[in-house]
């Protein structure tokens, strides 16, 4: 395991998290798509940090539940986050293109999820 690589994943996740918080402070409705997307990205990068910490090379996928499946045997307590992760997964791709638009309520939900998930993962990482 490379602590440096874990740290890089955490730094990338934190950049997404700070983006979410900054946009949240400006306008949930105006930035709903971006808030939802960066919430998903933050979760994905935190899960990939955990994978590296466990000695597993992160796959090039965006499906959060699949990443969780890879972690579940090494970090059983991560399983409690499955429901939250399932809610974030669609924002990786479905909302980035025309056809679907996130609403203010969805952005609010994503913010609540990513705050809780971030705390859970950082506790596991010892951050």
Radius of gyration: 14 Å
Tell me the CATH superfamily.
Answer: Nucleotidyltransferases  domain 2
Low-confidence runs (pLDDT<50, min 5 residues)? none
Helix content: 55-70%
Biggest sheet architecture: none
Instruction: Tell me the strand percentage band.
Output: under 5%
CATH class: Mainly Alpha
| Backbone shape | globular
Can you offer a commentary on this structure?
It is globular and about 40 Å long. α1 runs antiparallel to α2. It is mainly alpha-helical. The two termini are 16 Å apart. It is built from five helices and no strands.
What keyword list fits this structure?
mainly alpha; 127 residues; 5 helices; Four Helix Bundle (Hemerythrin (Met), subunit A)
Provide a quick synopsis of the model.
By secondary structure, the chain is mainly α.
């Amino acid at each position: 395991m490379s602590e440096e690589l874990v740290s890089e994943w955490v730094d990338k996740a934190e950049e997404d998290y700070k983006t979410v918080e900054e946009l949240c402070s400006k306008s949930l409705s105006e930035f709903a798509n971006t808030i939802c997307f960066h919430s998903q990205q933050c979760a994905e990068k935190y899960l990939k940090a955990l994978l590296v910490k466990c000695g597993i090379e992160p796959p090039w996928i965006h499906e959060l539940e699949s990443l969780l499946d890879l972690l579940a045997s090494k970090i059983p307590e991560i399983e409690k986050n499955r429901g939250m992760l399932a809610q974030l997964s669609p924002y990786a791709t479905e909302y980035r293109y025309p056809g679907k638009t996130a609403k203010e309520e969805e952005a609010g939900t994503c913010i609540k999820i990513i705050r809780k998930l971030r705390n859970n993962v950082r506790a596991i990482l010892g951050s």
